Amino acid sequence: MPHEYVAAAEAFGKGIGGRGLTLVFGGCNVGLMGAVARATKEAGGKVTGIIPDNMHTRGLLFDGCTEVKVTHGMATRKLEMEEAADAFVALPGGFGTLEEITQAITLKQLQYHTKPIVLVNTHGFYDKLLEFLEHTYELKFAKATYRELYHVAPDAEEVFEYLDKYEPPKLESKWFEK
Known about the structure:
44% of the residues lie in helices and 15% in strands. The protein is α/β, with parallel strands linked by helices and 178 residues long. The longest helix has 16 residues, at 3-18. It has seven helices and six strands. The chain starts with a helix and ends in a 14-residue tail after the last helix. Helix 1 (3-18) packs parallel to helix 2 (31-42). It has one domain (3-162): Rossmann fold.
């Protein structure tokens, strides 16, 4: 994993901890989220890990968690994370990150929540996804106003600027007229 991605993750964690906030995350001690958890804890923040039992038994739990919840599977883990989170922030990641952030966007579109969603576009990581989303708007598979469902930030500093002034958008119905 390139150092600049780890450094960006650490900056995000320092921002969480420095503001006295709590990180709610998947509980693992590896990858960018492991770096966020370590930096959050080192900066004085709280860390809530919500980890599925099969990852917990593999020894992947971040041992610096302030609170740990072990779930029976990924679906329960995601539900508990969604309920506990005040915001959804996606750093660069793989399939799990993509699945979780698109679910958060979909649930917001369907008005199950009004929480802020931020894609941290470190070194243009999400550029191709954003191109795809623009394609869906152009072809009217999604309304262009749904760009308001999420915010794209280049770095941790802008994530916190956005969250500090966040107000839920007033969204129209998902459904297009016939």
